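We modelled the chain as a single entity of 248 amino acids. Its sequence is:
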Amino acid sequence: MGRLDDKIAIVTGAGQGIGRAIAEKLAAEGAIVVVSDLDEATAAETAKALPGAIAIRADVTDRPGVQTMADRVVQQFGRIDVLVNNAGWDKASPFVDSEPADWDRAIAVNLYGVLHTCKAVLPVMAGQGRGAVVNLGSDAGRVGSSGEAVYSAAKGGLIAFTKTVAREVARHHINVNCVCPGPSDTPLFQKEFAEKSPKLAESLKRVIPWGRLGVPDDVAPAVVFLASDDAGFITGQTLSVSGGLTMV
């Protein structure tokens, strides 16, 4: 028996990295996973490896598209029990050197993307009288991170949004929590940090008390816990999974 047997779980950005690890862990605990990603090929690859999973291409910045995804899930499965907002995007740059187009994308994906999915899914969960939402924030949103000003702002907004929505939907027995990874060895990190600024990437390892970058499998168990009935009386909380990088 798994902690999430037969629950229907949507994971955004689940084609690779942390999202894929979360999808795999949810499935291992018995959930039927809806693997959502902008990249249709990686979504299909992840879903193919998980029993009962389906892949849906979705762009979280496209509100009508997100609504269509939610409607499809309800039509096919009858309910949505878990929503994991994992899709994210970042581009490392000092703020004064950054481009407004990158600001727009960072806010659109990291903040508006969560607004879109929650707007589509929370009414479904309210109608059911239960549900769990886990938002992937970042320690950058708690304490700031050099070279990630707008990303940090978006993630800080996400943390505040999590707390407020948790208050609003508690009467429907919907839990809303936030998991904040620290620097993690993911495809996005390799592309936007390690390749462009190897010294920055190496320095991050040194400031983590655990002595290494996080990996996707570090984050997935925390998400599964908050998505499960074991966390039934936990809501509005922010949990860092960062090897001790932040202790707040």
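As a brief sanity check on the tokenised model: The chain has nine helices and seven strands. Strands lie at 8-12, 32-37, 54-57, 82-85, 131-136, 174-181, 238-241.
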